[in-house]
Amino acid sequence: MTLTVDTSRGYVVCGRGCRHWGPYGAAGLLLRHGSRVLLQQRAPHVHHGGTWSLPGGALHQGETPRRGAHREASEELGGLPRIGHHAVHTSDHGGWAYHTVIADALKEFTPGRGDGEGSRADWFTPGQVVGLALHPDFADTWHQVAILIGGRR
């Protein structure tokens, strides 16, 4: 019998002295459809519960940001539509990085029931995003990501 150990779990401290989940970095999927983006409200029992962020999470050892973001978003949203990748924004913290994978939903998508890490998901215009209670780290990078997607800051 082969035992597989999930080494993607656990907190690490980056070069800036901040604590992050996932020793191999993390990735989230910013899914666009038309002029809107899909965000997920974090469940109350997870870190920064109640805030809005991207569906995503810790990368597995050797996993690419695109594959990790797709895997995590599919788990958290109960599946994904066909998507076309657009760009990746990387926030490098010195020894740890968060990758925002920007992709287009090729058809309209209604999120399903996921793994419980999010309490709900909804579509917003970039202008609406700034008025939400955002996860602090997502709030720090939103202005850069909004420029990449052509939205307002």
CATH class: Alpha Beta
Q: Would you report the number of β strands?
A: 9
The rounded distance between the terminal residues' Cα atoms is 52 Å
Q: Categorize the overall geometry.
A: globular
Q: Any guess at the CATH architecture?
A: Alpha-Beta Complex
- The quaternary state of the protein chains shown equals single chain
Which runs of at least 5 residues are low in confidence (pLDDT < 50)? Answer: 1-6
Helix-residue proportion = 10-25%
Largest sheet: 7 strands, mixed
- The overall pLDDT average reads 88
- Counted up, domains total 1
CATH superfamily: Nucleoside Triphosphate Pyrophosphohydrolase
Provide the CATH topology. Answer: Nucleoside Triphosphate Pyrophosphohydrolase
Q: Write the element-wise H/E pattern from the N-terminal end onward.
A: EEEEEEHEEEHH
Q: Rounded to an integer, what's the Rg over CA atoms?
A: 15 Å
Q: Give the strand content.
A: 25-35%
Structural class estimated from helices and strands: alpha+beta
Biased composition (Basic and acidic residues): 63-74
GO molecular function, one term: hydrolase activity
Cofactor: Mg(2+)
Domain Nudix hydrolase: 22-146
